[in-house]
Amino acid sequence: MSGPMSLLSRVAGGGMAALPELPRPRRVPSWAVGDPVAELAERLSAACSAAVHPDEIAAVLESEGLTDEQITGRYGHPDLFSLARELFETVPRRFPEPEPADDPWQVDVWRCVLRGLTFALPGVAYVLGGRWAGGDDGPFGVSRAVAAWGAAALCGWGWNQALAHRAHLHLLAQRPRAAARCLVTGAAVGACLAGAAAAAVAGPGHLSALAFAAGQSVYVASATVLLVLGRERSLLYVLTPLAVAVACGAGGLPSPAVAAVLVATAAAAGGAALASALRTALTGEPPERGPAKPPRAPWRERVRADRGAQLRARASRFGRGAAGPGTGTRTTPGRFGRRAAGPGTGTPTTPGRFGRRAAGPGTDTRTGLVSSLRTLPEAARLLWRADDGVTDAKGLSPYLSLPHGMAGLAGGALVVAAALTGEFVAALTVSMGVAEWLLFRFRSRCLTALRGTTVHERLLARSWRVLAGCLALYAVALAALAAVEAAVVPGAAAWNPAHLSVLLALGGTLWLSLLLQSCGRAWTGSYVLAAAVLTAVALLAAHTATAGTVLGLVCAGAAAVLLTAAFTMTGRVTTHR
Predict the structure, then answer these.
(1) Which residues pair with 143 in a beta bridge?
(2) Calpha distance 321→342 (Å, rounded)
């Protein structure tokens, strides 16, 4: 007798081991009735649709317990792999959705706006320092003082951009103390180099201009430290008095008062940068990545706790003991602030009548200022030691940050050239916050497209649309800021197509260069920017056209090259991983 009865007789006779019980088949559609392969494909559709190779389906079939007799007799295939290949070709691919993951490119919009303000506010210092910009004629049709300031700015931009990249590499390697040490030493060296460049251009006899250039160098170096360590608000607080002084007409004050305001701003920036670096060295983590604050108790519990503390302090002040509950700690009461041990700690506190502060559990009686001063040697010692407590003998190669320094120097040269030709430099400076936000937005949208697209052509199309949209938004922002500058700033450029074209070409070049840097193609952006600067210098030396025309044409060509590189790069899957 064939069929199930013969199978049962063979199993009962002990000729072979009992077959494992197969899962109960699900209800199959009408088109699959009578076709065993179709029924099997419907039953294993989840595993077959997610397979990327027939061998995966073969492993699933083997785990189901199919025998050679079942494969040849019921499904009509010579072996397991032949059946797996048919299932792989029959069932369409339906890959499961990936698990939701964090987006590292999410950024707060207001933080980018704040950084844009910190990029723009230093320009008000030149309103006060303009009184020292006179003198004999210097290069490029400006005075030697202005040329010295430009040289210091260019040197500072190039050096500090490379320094910021190097410090970020340390932070990515989970070495915050090495990053703080790199920032402190690099900022000091950069300030000295920028001051030396200003002195070489200005020459003797320009002490006021050299002093302004020195303060500018100190501020730029300090701002680099604060921005890398995420202290944008501290930098904004430092610049606020300077902006208020300019808004209140400080330009009419005598030179000593103006010099005092500028020196105080530079000194405050330097002090805030050094304090942030020491804090990073002491805590072992950057300020913006510090531990989250514990949640506060409800207000009713806080009121009860404060009321209980007041009652215990009053009891100790009038001679009644105030030992902590369940601690057995003796107190020494006293009306005039005799010491009483804190609950469970044995730490002397000073409650009382004359406003002496009581130390909390596990603390000491030192005030915040004294405690901070006493921790300065420890912070300075940790600043010069690596994260593992040994001297850092192995550092990063300078070659890694060299393209970022070249890009900063070349981009600064283009901005200085735009300032000398009377273009919309203030609008370009303010737009840096918008440019940073759009850069993060582009990377975030492309990452979302990568996670939600399984076809390369679709990823390419979506990334190109995102890139075009971000460029269009940045162009609109530049045009709007240029209109505001033309209406508000005295002596600004006219808001016409000629000046707008130069602004859009320069802004697009800088934004695309930053985009290539964020995608790991820093050398491409630095090469294009350096070639643009050299081309502009050659054309200006040959007197081929006006300075504005040359700058606009050179920046347009550089933007076209960078845009081509960006289109090629953003269509790759590895760029957005």
Answers:
(1) 137
(2) 12
Task: Please check the confidence at residue 414 and state whether its pLDDT lies above 80.
Answer: yes
DSSP element (H, E) containing 504? helix 497-518
Letter for the amino acid at 474? Y
Q: Residues with Cβ < 8 Å from 576, sequence gap 6 or more?
A: 443, 446, 447, 449, 450, 463, 570
Q: Are 304 and 312 in contact, with CB atoms under 8 Å apart?
A: no
Per DSSP, the three-state class of 143 is: strand
Report DSSP letters for 408-468, one per residue. HHHHHHHHHHHHHTT--HHHHHHTHHHHHHHHHHHHHHHHHHHHH--SHHHHHHHHHHHHH
Separation CA 372–CA 69 (nearest Å): 82
The confidence band for 43, taking pLDDT boundaries of 50, 70 and 90, is: confident
Phi, psi of 275 (to 5 degrees): -65, -40
E strand or H helix at 340:
strand 340-341
> What tokens does 193 get?
């180099």
Other C-beta atoms within 10 Å of 110: how many? 10
Q: Per-residue pLDDT for 122 more than 60?
A: yes
As a whole number of angstroms, the distance between CA 343 and CA 25 comes to 69
The answer to whether 278 and 184 have CB atoms below 8 angstroms apart is no
CB-CB contact of 185 with 233 (8 Å): no
Nearest-angstrom CA–CA distance, 401 and 161: 8
pLDDT in tens, 501-541: 999 999 999 999 999 998 888 899 999 999 999 999 999 88
* Chain segment 186-211, per-residue pLDDT in tens: 999 999 999 999 988 887 777 888 88
Determine the Cα–Cα distance for residues 403 and 516; give it in Å rounded to an integer: 11
Query: pLDDT tens-digit profile of 85-115?
Result: 999 888 887 766 666 667 777 777 788 888 8
> Is residue 181 within 8 Å of 274, Cβ to Cβ?
no
Mean pLDDT of 44-58: 86
Q: What is the mean pLDDT of the chain?
A: 76
Segment 231-238 long-range contacts (CB within 8 Å, at least 24 positions apart): 231/272, 231/276, 231/287, 231/288, 232/111, 232/114, 232/115, 232/118, 233/114, 234/272, 234/276, 235/118, 235/269, 235/272, 236/114, 236/117, 236/118, 236/121, 238/265, 238/268, 238/269, 238/272
Confidence of residue 336 (pLDDT cuts 50, 70, 90): very low
| pTM score | 0.67
Q: Quote the pLDDT of residue 332.
A: 40
483 vs 251: CA distance, rounded Å? 25
Strand partners, 341: 348
Measure the CA–CA gap between 270 and 215, rounded to whole angstroms: 10
